[in-house]
Each structure stands twice: as structure tokens, then as C-alpha cells.
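Justification of resources, computational component.

The compute hours requested in this renewal are based largely on the per-chain cost of generating structure records like the one below. Each record pairs the submitted sequence with a full C-alpha cell output. That output is archived, and it is also reused by downstream analysis tasks.
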Amino acid sequence: MFQTMKILLRLLVRWLFRFRAYNEEVLKAQGPVLLIPNHQSLLDWLFLGVCLDEDWKFVVSSVAAQTTWLHRKIAINSRTFLIDSTSPYALKRMAEYLQSGGRLVLFAEGRLSRTGSMMKLFDGTGFLLHKTRAKVITCYLRGVDHQRLTLHKNFKRWFPRVTVHFSEVLAPPRLEQVSTSQARNALTNWLRDQMVSQQFAIEMQHGPATVLGAIAETARQRPRFVVMEDATRQGLTYRRLMAGVDLMARQWRSALGTARDERIGILLPNISATPVVLLSLWAANKVPAVLNYSTGTTTMLACTQLAGLKRIVTSRTFLERTKLNIDPFVKGGIELIYLEEVRHNSSDAQRFFALLRHTLRAPRFAGHARADATAVILFTSGSEGVPKGVELTHTNLISNIRQLLLITDIQDSDRIFNAMPLFHSFGLTIGTLLPLVRGSYIFIYPSPLHYRVVPTIFYDRDCTIMIGTNTFLNGYARKAHPYDFRSLRYMFSGAEKVQEATANLWSRRFGVRILEGYGATECSPCISLNTPMEAKHGSAGKLLPHIEYKLEPVEGVSETRNAECGMRNEQNPVASGRLLVRGPNVMRGYLNSEANAQFKALGGWYDTGDIVSVDADRFVTILGRLRRFAKVSGEMVSLTAVEDALAGAFPQYGLRCQIAVLSRPDEEKGERLVAVTNESRLQPDEIRATIKAKGLANICAPREVKYVREIPKLGTGKVNHRELAKLI
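The structure output for this chain reads:
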């Protein structure tokens, strides 16, 4: 009877949901074993039940089982293991059953997801693993989040495609000489990491291989959704977005030829047309190279020559407003393609038929490029040297997007505000491509420097998520009304270290916790991130799933010195050193031959050049860049740590007061620290007193102060230390 019912139900879900199960043979494992799936819909039990033998039992709350007659019918039978979730003996009963060789299906989240992504795991699961030594099979139910019998408010339909993926049988780590409380927390965290890692691997295997393919998939599901808007306040639906991409790609193929992988420059501001140009170049099998217009014509021309660009897509209006000198490009034989002319070349009939094609049958944009082919070329900021050209593949970009989506609970209803420039990987990948893949509204603003305007527009558009850097966040905090960020759910910060003064200001003035992340252009860009689920004060977040790391020792950077400079992590044992990372989001390579040879010699590892500490839970704390350490009297001092200590320490001079720290050769001590400020009233004695008050060692105090009218910044808001060194 059981087998007959199982076969019939399997045929039913196969017909309705195109159901398929992977790696089912692991379900033959003998007990004690726990099957831990994600929990999205009211039908999760059905998709699992058609794969399981009769002796598997589902753990069900007796309280929930009594809710309605339907609940009682489904939840109270020979296939369920009823527990009273309010009783302290519930875990004991489960442990006894497992120790007797039982096999249980446990929804460790304890409730249906309200966000569409995995929610927290209750630490009772970790307790079971610690006490019973049970084996674990994690399970990823893919596609059920789109099923209508869910409780979140994201996009749904009646019969989405559903697949179930079972992991190999896992043996939880054995934790000796730790308390039960520590063990249950550690094993719960281990289990969550295993589930997130599995989900990432499955998405990479079964999801679209390119960013354009992933965006097209979301567009087919929600064609009428207004996904993008810029300063003109003209909303763009997915259907119009993809029709514009298709139409422009046809023009590129006609004007630029059909040769694959030709590099085309993009010199455009933050407007809706920029992502359209980027996606259309992908659809036309071209490789966009996004130029940083904030660096000036000379640096842009060097980047153009490095990338071997013959054509650049730009805008006459943009060039007129920025007054960029384009003569060197013209003299260099580079063809400038103006968006205004590209638009003029499209007739109304062509636009109509492109929109009609996407209305009747939206293309999938599959097979337009290999996943391992270069997708985009970005140029590093060059804060400490000449910019390098970074080749990021489609796999790099889509990997980083999926890594971030798995650890955050961004939803369909979220409205993302992005003023970060699209020539920067932070603004491009996280601020633009990620919401396009996810299906969340994005408002693109042309400049992050409009400190008074940005908070006003954020308030007007009811945005819920914002990205920025420490410099820009300070600017917004000075000009914003306390109510401007009333709708803000998450503030993600990157590109530079968040200073304590900035975090405190946002907390006091707006009641907002800044979630700091860390990354590099070479890593697409995100390496680690603090999230609402897993956050650690003072850190740059937890390493993303499927990112390996290793730390190389650095002479002179010791635990003792870290402690003296206020950089020790007191919560967990840590290891410190120069950080190298490896993962699917790490770049293909550099355009610069010497830098690329150094990268290739590392065998897939990327040397970040940053000195960090990493604790047992994979949280990263930035101690400073290797180049931003000074050797004073034989000891290594982090210039970044000194800057952090001085940031916001002089409110008597106003919020405009800024301080940067450089090092200079010194005959007696090897190097000496120099403070550079735009506040002429600031005295050396005040700086030394602040260093002492912050608990830093005496050698961390700058020995002299230099005054400048303005501290130079990059387009991302970071201090341009290379230009600053020239000034003094």
C-alpha cells in the first residue's frame, strides 16, 4: 500500500511540477541520521515524502498539528514524529529515537520562510548532533519558493518546476573539551554553512551560467515589473529593458560586426542606459570595458591602451556636462559611438516589433557566451599605484551575486538605491546586476557626492536598501533629515573601512546598523559581509560560501603589536597575516602582463595585499594594507588603524574635518608617521592626546602635521593616497 501511494504521488508531482530528485541513493543510509531540508512551502513534506522509505519520520510540532482538521489529517499519522515544541523533553525524545537507530526529517528552521530565503536554524539541532553523533544529509528544495503555498510575498505561481537535491552523508565535527552550549552553537553554525554551501553549488550547476541569462530568466517571470529607474524618473519594466537590450544588440552586430569577444569601452554615467548598453554588448558577444571618468583623460587613455580599445560608447550630453577632453581619444584613433545616434538609428517600427517579440515570447539569451569567457573589464582604483585592468568572467560575476543572495534576505519588495559609480565593481555587481538578477527595484543616481539630494530622493522613492562607502555615509549623515531613512532596512558599506565614528553617528541619528563588507575588484568584488543573520561588531563580515583563504605571516605584525594598536579580536582565537583567497568569484586575470604573471604563479589564489585576522567562525577583521603599514623602531604600525582612531575625534572643528596618515623615511626610527588634514586649527598635541586616549601605543602617534586645502579622493570616496603623497 505504501509503495503504491508513493509511486502515485511521485507521478503526480512529476506531472504538476516537473519534479526530479538528485542523489537519492544516500537516503539508504542507516540511522542514526537526520535529513535537514530548507523549509519554504506547505508542500515540502510531499516533495520529500515521495523520495523516502517508510521508516523515515517527519518531526512535527503537536501544537501546529492541531491547528485545523487538515493539519491533523496530514500531521498525525505513522510517518510523523510528534513533539511538544514548548517542552524541554522534546529534544530528549528525539535524541533517544535517533540513538536507537532512527531516521528523522527535521525542518531545522522551525517555520516556513517569511523571506523566500533560508532563515535561522534553531540551536536545538546542534544539540541533537552533539548528543547523538547522528549523521546528516542536507537537502535543497529548489524552486519551491515560487510555489503559491508559501508565506512570503515574493513572486509565486501555481506549478513551478521543483527539484530536490540530497547531499552526501555528512559526519558533524566532534567537539571535545567544550561546553554543551558552545557545542550546540558551533554545530548549528556548521550545519547552516553546509546548507548554504550546498545551495550555492546547486544554483551554479542548475541555474543560468551567465548574468544576462539569469536576468532574462527573472524577466520572463515578471515582465511587467518596474525594475529600474534613474534621475529622470522614467521607470523601466523588465519587458522594456530586455527589448531594449535585444534591439541595441542587433545594432551592435550590424555596426560593429559579428566578431566575438571584441573589447568595447563604456564611458557613461549612472543612468538606466548604462546597464542596457552593458547587457546588449553581452548579447552581441562583445566584452565591455567600463572606464572610470573620475580619474581624468590621461589615466583613461592609459586604460584604453591597456585594454586595446578601438571603440568607446559614450554620450554627447554626458561629455558636455562633465567637460571631459576627448581630443586624446580622437587623436589616438579611437572611434566614439554616441548613444544619441544609436537611439536615432532605431525606428519606431523596430522598437514596436522588439517589444512585441518580448511580449509574445521572451528570449532566454542562452548560449551568447561561455561561462568562463571574459564578461567585463574593470580597472582598479589606483589609490596606491597605476590602475590595473581586471578581467572578470561570467562565472565570476554570477558566483558573487549568488553568494550574496544566499546569505541575505533581499526580497521582491525591496527597493535598492545605488549612487555608487558603475565603473566600480561595488556599484556594478552589487548595486546593479544583483538586483536585476534578484528581481528587486533599483534606483540609479548619477553621483554619490550630492550629500543633500541623495537622502531626499531615498526618502521620496521609499527605498529599503542602500549601498555606500564610509566617506559618502558621513556626507549623508551631515545633511540628511533624521526621517529621510525611515524605510531603510539594510545599509551595506564597502570599498573602505567603516570608521567607528561613522557607525556611531548612523546608529544615534537614524537608528541604523551599518553592515560592513570587504572585497576587491579582482573578486567581483565581495569577499566577506556582515549580514543581519551573522554579524560581528568591528569585523568586515564572514567569508562568503565557497571562498577558501590562507594567511601568510608578515614579519613585524605580531599578536602583541595588534593588541597595542587596538586590533585584537577578543571574542575568538584568531590567526593574523596577509590574506590570500580562492573561489569562483576570483578574476580570470590582469591585462597587465607583469601583474598577471604574478597572479598566475599563485595557482588560483589572489593576494589581497591586506593584513587581516580571521577567527574560528571565518569573520575577517582588517588590520590594514601591507603597503599601509609603517615600520617604526622595528615595529609594524597600521596607518589605517591610526586613521580610524583619529576619525571623528575632533567634533569641535566640525564634521568637515578629515585626517589621513602617511609615512615618511626617518634616519633614527626607520619611518615616521605624518598626519595630513584639511583643518588648519588642528594641533599636533591634540592628535597625540587622542592617540593616547584611544589606547594606542606611543609609536602610533604622528610626529608632524601637514595641512592641505582638500584631501584628494577617488570616485569611490576613498582617500587617494598616491595623489596625497604628491601634495606633501
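Residues 2-206 form a domain with the Glycerol-3-phosphate (1)-acyltransferase fold (CATH 3.40.1130.10). The chain has three domains: 2-206, 213-547+583-601, 626-727.
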